[in-house]
Amino acid sequence: MEKVIRDDYVFDIDIEKTKSFYSDTPKIFDCLSEYLPELTHFMALLGIDIEKPVKYDPNDTYDLLYTTFGTVASKNGYELDFYGEDKFVSVVVISARKNSITIEVFGITLKKE
User: Fold this and answer.
1) Which of 36, 38, 46 is nearest to 9 (CA)?
2) Where does the chain have alpha helices with state H?
3) Which of 10, 12, 79, 113 is 20 to 30 A distant from 103 in Cα terms?
4) Whole-number pLDDT of residue 95
């Protein structure tokens, strides 16, 4: 288990199980990892491949769901915020079942070509 601390959240993550889960999942997007490097780094610490959400709208990156395996504790349960130039993304721990954590990422907006 790997400990990841961000704000008042403390995650104990089964990195091997999470990375294995994402290694078997096809890549959905090919542009999210560069959107906000700090967010990508945080998700990688949780073992999550940001390019491979488990629930998404293929035409919209604004609301994405991810899964990691382990436990999480928080004093206030509020969202984690990430900022970049003209960018703001919120990460919410929306459920934490036994050894499974669902992470929801709000706010990634990509320019349409």
Assistant:
1) 46
2) 15-23, 37-45
3) 113
4) 72
The tokens for 80 are 């984690």
Helices marked H in 24-72: 37-45
Domain ranges of the chain: 2-106
Mean pLDDT score, 31-40:
92
Q: The pTM is what?
A: 0.91
Residue carrying the six token digits 């206030």 = 76
Q: For residue 70, give every residue at least 6 positions away whose Cβ sits within 8 Å of its Cβ, in sequence order, or none.
A: 1, 11, 12, 13, 14, 18, 99, 101
Please count the other Cβ atoms lying within 10 Å of the Cβ belonging to residue 28. Answer: 16
pLDDT value of position 78: 82
- List, edge to edge, every strand of the sheet that includes 60-68: 55-57, 60-68, 100-106, 87-97, 80-84
List the one residue out of 37, 51, 47, 112 whose CA is nearest residue 82.
37
